[in-house]
Amino acid sequence: MRYVRQAGSDPSFLLKALGESSGDLRRSIDGLSRIELLRTGEGFDEDWCLLAIAVHLRDTEEGILEQVEAILSGREPEIRHVDLDDIPLPDVYRDADEDRVLDEFQFYRRHTTYTLWDLPERHWERAGLHPYRGKLTIMEIAREAYQHDLEHLWQARRMLDAMTRPGR
Description:
By secondary structure, this protein is mainly alpha-helical. Helix content is 59%, strand content 5%. A two-stranded antiparallel ribbon has the order 1-2. α1 packs parallel to α6 and α3 runs parallel beside α5 (98-117). The relative contact order is 0.20.
C-alpha cells in the first residue's frame, strides 16, 4: 500500500504554499487606500486591520527564518519564541509603508523558502529547542507557517468582503 501524506506534511507542498503567500497577500491589498488599509475589522477581526496583518506576517516571517537558520547551524540549538498570535500595536503599523512591509515580508519568505528548497527531506526533522515548547522541527515550523498564512489570508478576505458590503 502506498503511503499518502496529509497536506502540510510534504516538503514540496509546503514550499509551494509558502512561496505563494506573500504574493497572495500583495494581490489582496494592492491598490487599497490608506483608510481601507487601516480600517479595523468587525467581530472576530476587531483588533486587526489589513496593514496590521501585513506587518504581523512580515515580523513573524523574520522570526521563522531565524529559527530555521539556527536549527541548520547547530545540533538542537536554542531557538527564540515567535508569537504567531501577537497583534501589532497601532504605533507599530500606523505609519508603515505597505509596499515596503510587503517587500520585506516577501524578502524574508523568499529567503526561508530558498533555505529549505535544497534541504534533504531527512533534514526537515532537524530540531531546535524552543523555550516553551521544547523540541521543534523544521517540518513543524514550516507547517505552522503555512497554517498561519492561511488563517491570515482568510482573515484579510473576510475584512475585504466586509468593506464591500452595502452600508459599509
